[in-house]
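Quick one, tokens below:
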């Protein structure tokens, strides 16, 4: 459990979530608003434990309930930058799938709320604010803005990577992983990978390759991050016209990830997806979503090029063609 020292305010002196101040004693409505804030954070973390993409109904119900708490708290704590950040996180994770398959998000509202956090308190969790904005701009296909925010996030992370601190009673005991993923400061290697991805989507292939190479150089051996960095570098090389290099890099990527044998989720992914399993990890998402098929097509082509068995080569080439057809049929443009 956390010690008292673990729960001290961060350097900017912000109050701990839900803890009363003398203002709250004198104004009970502020105390009630902070209780709503705490409850909203608990619901937001609970939603994060359900499914990583946030598309199932139970997850969305928790997010909507969290937003209800945050909106009610906002009536009183209207200039509270901490509340604004958690509300932005909830808005960013809102993803309701309507009948017919159309996905309804609240991306623009989330961006506005994050900009509001930055306006209220420019020094409050700048790496978190910037990385969240980058993800949202990428979702909106504003790749230049996304790249700029990733660069800002990386700069702040290099200065100091201080995680958001929450009291332990905010969290259900089974949500420690969700707590880390939702509230921890951005990981530098992931920021480099994400920046490379939006640079590639925006057409700056030289910058994309440079950032992917940076991610490769700073990733741990046999890690998921290294595999994903290599997959990204391979696609950037392919789109830059370096086909032979791309095949070699993709082949390396396909054999890089060696997860712990006791990680049942990872082992199930390997059993189901084989060499492209890292691309299907629940913590990995693509904007636009059809990009995954481009990575898979290139990887299967690389595996075919290195196959020593003619039958296996044929299997891999058929998989490559299938992935490429899917990529183009759902909106891809290589």
């Amino acid at each position: 459990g956390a010690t008292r020292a673990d729960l001290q305010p961060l350097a900017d002196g912000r109050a701990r979530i839900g803890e009363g101040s003398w203002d709250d004693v004198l104004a009970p409505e502020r105390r009630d608003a902070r209780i709503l804030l705490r409850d909203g954070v608990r619901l937001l973390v609970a939603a994060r434990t359900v499914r990583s993409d946030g598309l199932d109904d139970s997850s969305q119900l928790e997010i909507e309930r969290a937003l209800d708490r945050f909106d009610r708290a906002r009536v009183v704590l209207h200039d509270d930058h901490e509340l604004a950040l958690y509300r932005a996180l909830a808005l960013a994770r809102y993803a309701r799938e309507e009948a017919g398959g159309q996905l309804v998000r609240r991306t623009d509202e989330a961006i506005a709320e994050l900009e509001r956090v930055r306006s209220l308190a420019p020094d409050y969790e700048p790496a978190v604010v910037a990385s969240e904005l980058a993800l949202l701009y990428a979702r909106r296909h504003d790749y230049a803005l996304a790249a700029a925010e990733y660069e800002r996030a990386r700069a702040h992370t290099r200065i100091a990577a201080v995680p958001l601190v929450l009291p332990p009673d905010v969290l259900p005991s089974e949500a420690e992983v969700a707590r880390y993923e939702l509230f921890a400061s951005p990981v530098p290697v992931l920021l480099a990978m994400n920046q490379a991805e939006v640079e590639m989507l925006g057409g700056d292939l030289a910058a994309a390759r440079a950032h992917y190479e940076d991610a490769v150089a700073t990733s741990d051996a046999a890690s998921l991050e290294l595999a994903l960095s290599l997959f990204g570098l391979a696609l950037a090389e392919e789109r830059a016209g370096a086909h032979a290099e791309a095949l070699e890099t993709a082949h390396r990527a396909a054999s890089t990830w060696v997860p712990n044998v006791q990680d049942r989720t990872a082992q199930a992914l390997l059993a189901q997806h084989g060499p492209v399993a890292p691309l299907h990890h629940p913590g990995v998402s693509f904007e636009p979503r059809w990009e995954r098929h481009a990575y898979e097509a290139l990887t299967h082509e690389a595996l075919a090029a290195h196959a020593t068995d003619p039958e296996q080569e044929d299997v891999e080439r058929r998989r490559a063609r299938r992935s490429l057809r899917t990529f183009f049929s759902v909106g891809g443009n290589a």
